[in-house]
Design goal:
With 286 residues, the chain is of the alpha/beta class. Helices cover 35% and strands 19% of the residues. Helix 6 links the parallel strand 7 and strand 8. The longest helix has 19 residues.
Length: 286
C-alpha cells in the first residue's frame, strides 16, 4: 500500500524536513545531546492517514556534519527517484568525540574512547526510548540502523555488533578499525592487538545482522606491514574476514565498497552515501 498524497501536491515538490531537537539531556554523558532529525517527505500526511505506521530509523554519529555531507539534497534526490523507502534519520551531534567514540568494552592504549561505554549506555537507555516516544519510528530491531564515519563508524559497528536485539544493520564509512590495545613501541601485533577484531573473535554470531563498509584507496598513506596495502583497507578487510569466520556470509550479509581515489573526508562519504542508503533502506515493492 502506498502512502496517500494530496492530489494537488506533486511528488517532486515534496522534500525532507530537518528538525533540530535539543531536548535530550544525557545522564551518563552529563551533557545535552544535540540532534538533527530528518523527516521523510509526506511524514505529516502519513501520520494523519496511517497514524499507527512506524518508520524505519537511521541513527548517525557525527550528526553535526550533515551540511558538509549534503544529506538533505541526497535524500531529496533518492526520494524523488523512489529509490529508498521512507525512514527517519537521527543525526547525533558529537560531544567529547575522541573519548565518547570507540569500543564500549575498552579504551585504546592511549585511553582514548574512555567514555565509549557511557555513550553506548546513552544510546540504549536514553536515545532509543526518547526517539521512539517523540517520533514515529519502529521499535523493530530489523528496521533500526546505526552508521558513522571514522571513529564514529567504529562506534556504530561496535554498538550494532554487540546489540543485535536493538539493531540489524551497521554502516561504516572509513572506520577506525586500527583501534589498538598496544603501541608499536610496546610490541603491537595485527593478529592480537586490534581491539575490534578481537571483540569480533570473542563475540557471538547473530543471524539478523548485516554490515556495510566503505574505504577509499586514498583514505591514508600508512602501511604498517609494508605490503603495499594501506592500513585503512587492510584493517577493514581483515575485520570482514573475522566476520566471515564468525559465520556471516560474505555476499549476503556484508557489502564492501572500495572507492578508487576516495579520501578520508565528507566529500568522499557523500559520494557513496546513496549506495549505503539504498542498501540500508531498499525500496519495498508494494
Amino acid at each position: 500500500m502506498t502512502d496517500a498524497l494530496p492530489a494537488h501536491v506533486p511528488v517532486e515538490l515534496l522534500s525532507v524536513r530537518v528538525q533540530r531537537d535539543d531536548s535530550l539531556h544525557s545522564v551518563p554523558l552529563n551533557r545535552v545531546v544535540h540532534l538533527d532529525i530528518i523527516l521523510p517527505p509526506n511524514y505529516q500526511q502519513t501520520s494523519t492517514v496511517y497514524p499507527q505506521e512506524r518508520l524505519p530509523v537511521l541513527f548517525l554519529n557525527d550528526g553535526q556534519d550533515l551540511p558538509r555531507l549534503r544529506m538533505t539534497a541526497i535524500l531529496d534526490s533518492l526520494y524523488q527517484k523512489q529509490a529508498i523507502q521512507p525512514f527517519v534519520l537521527v543525526a547525533i551531534h558529537a560531544g567529547d568525540r575522541i573519548q565518547e567514540y570507540g569500543t564500549g568494552a575498552q579504551a585504546d592504549y592511549m585511553n582514548r574512547g574512555s567514555k565509549a561505554g557511557l555513550y553506548t549506555d546513552f544510546v540504549l537507555t536514553e536515545l532509543l526510548p526518547y526517539i521512539r516516544k517523540h517520533y514515529r519510528v519502529s521499535t523493530d530491531p530489523a528496521k533500526s540502523v546505526f552508521a558513522g564515519f571514522s571513529l564514529g563508524g567504529l562506534s556504530a559497528f561496535d554498538i550494532v555488533f554487540n546489540h543485535p536485539d536493538r539493531f540489524a544493520k551497521a554502516g561504516v564509512f572509513s572506520g577506525s578499525f586500527w583501534w589498538r590495545s598496544k603501541s608499536t613501541e610496546a610490541g603491537y601485533r595485527d593478529e592480537t592487538d586490534r581491539i575490534m577484531h578481537d571483540l569480533v573473535r570473542k563475540g557471538l554470531y547473530s543471524p539478523t545482522l548485516k554490515f556495510w563498509f566503505e574505504v577509499g584507496t586514498s583514505d591514508e598513506t600508512s602501511d604498517r606491514n609494508n605490503n603495499g596495502i594501506i592500513d585503512a583497507i587492510e584493517d577493514t578487510t581483515d575485520l570482514i574476514d573475522e566476520l566471515v569466520i564468525k559465520g556471516y556470509h560474505r555476499e549476503q550479509d556484508i557489502r564492501y565498497v572500495e572507492i578508487e581515489g576516495g579520501e578520508h573526508n565528507q566529500k568522499t562519504w557523500r559520494k557513496i552515501m546513496p549506495d549505503f542508503l539504498m542498501w540500508a533502506f531498499p525500496k519495498v515493492n508494494e
